[in-house]
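Q: Structure tokens for this one, please.
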Amino acid sequence: MRALSLILIIGGICWGSLSGIAAERSSVPNSRALYHEIALAGTIDYAVFERAIAGYNRMGGHDKDILTVIDFTKPSTEKRLFVIDLKLKKILFISYVAHGRNSGEKYATSFSNQEGSFKSSLGFYKTENTYYGKNGYSLVLNGLERGINDKAKERAIVMHGAAYADPSTIRSCGRLGRSLGCPALPLAVSKKIIDTIKGGTLLYIHGDDKTYASLSTFIKQDEAQKDRADI
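A: Here is the predicted structure, written as tokens:
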């Protein structure tokens, strides 16, 4: 009888643990389902969204169910910043966004974490507080990936509005103007976007860069998990 009671107790503990894990997993957004529910096809490439969601799930501890994705594989002549409410399952903003002047002309093709490079940095960031600086209303970005974007604060890489990020510049220059490395937004929408994503939300900047994929701990973990799933 004691043995049976012990088995039941252990079984209850294991079941409770498994139930908790199942509940935790069920609360994690599924990238494929969300992609279709939000109707992102034709707006964001699925591979980019999948990587952003994987990072969102892995990093956890988010203060809001807001995810911002910047896709620098798109030219600056296209809207390539997307603010998504994962709880409401809807896109809140789609906007133009400028890249760093030394990252490229129409396309951002070169990235750096070094101060003075005037290049954009890829990877995952957490948004922090806002302030008024030389570029007006700005949002502090905390780079979360060591060696990839963790010098964002040191480099004063922030989100802000800029006249050169207005789409009107495309007509005269054939592209948006460029920043010193900051993801700069059109002045008409910058404050609204900043106020929506400030205070602890996740931002993912994607680019066509093999160096990032080889250095990012997140990417290595993600690929390892996919390989195990294929076995």
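A few notes: Confidence is low (pLDDT under 50) at residues 2-28, 227-231. The longest strand covers residues 123-133.
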